[in-house]
Amino acid sequence: MLNERGFFPIGDSARTKTFPAITLILIIANIFVFFYALNLPEQIILKLAFIPSKPTLLAIFAHMFLHADIFHLFGNMWFFWIFGDNVEDRLGKARFLLLYFLSGIAALLAHIIINPGSSVPLVGASGAISGILGAYMILFPRARVHVYYGYFISGHLPAFLYAFIWFAFQLLYGIATLGMQAGIAFFAHIGGFIAGMVLALILKPKPKRIKVS
To answer: Torsions phi, psi of 161, nearest 5?
Structure first.
């Protein structure tokens, strides 16, 4: 899951002008694949999951639609829904889709650099969605993110501060678990997040110039 316990986004202040069709389609696709995969043999799942020591072109994309359990799925899709609609609205559907998958691929590259010979399967949309958060921070830095802190306590943080704290969590946990089987690909999150920031700067539409006659 993308969140750390007690630091979960439950809403944001940014508003959209368009219907988030791509975000919704990707969420539905992830949910469908999760329940469909429950009936698939384990050997097929392993072919679809990404294994750094045995990378395949199919797994590069297929692993983004697989999730370890219902909590993994729910955490990722909720996180995606909170931030994805705004990023899609700002970038447009085609650029948003490009950012999503390129962030997912960048997350894989970061994971491979840290775990080049790993035989542990990697599944989940976390890397791609981390890219969405990175893009959100660039595009909506002053938006307010409603955050659940734990024990029924919540508050609001500026998007740039929320993203910075989230990134710090990933970095600290990633360093602390280097060389260990952590169960969470922290450096994939980091790679996806950085890619999302860079891609948002590249892909965001330029302001329209007003022609004066």
So the answer is: -75, -40
